[in-house]
Specification:
8-stranded antiparallel beta sheet
Length: about 140
Amino acid sequence: MLPSFDAYCHLLADLPQQFPHIQQSTLSVYTIGALTAEVEGQITFHNGYVLDVWELLDLAKHTIYHYSYELRRADETIWWYDPQEHPNDPTLAATHPHHKHVPPDIKHHRVPAPGISFTEPNLPALIREIAALPA
């Protein structure tokens, strides 16, 4: 389970202090109903990458209900993660429904996404992945 809503908000706010390669974060978190919250914004990195973040949170279940994470550099999309189900693709079964879109043919080329979850914060793992990319 995700931490409490307040704790999750603090986790997101503290990302730039925890990860020095973050140049700027515009992440905003707000409730959009009694039991739903939305996270949206961008994380900009010193190496030129920009991560677009969008999450819907289920506050009653302490889970991420839906998400989209897209990494760009300049005008190029590097990859994105989403939980759109592809039950007929056996190569994605290990992390169903979580997967990552990668080149070539980024729209249709999908790979499993270990470490991405509805029940744990995803951004720390994504930030570590981005930090390891070449400058």
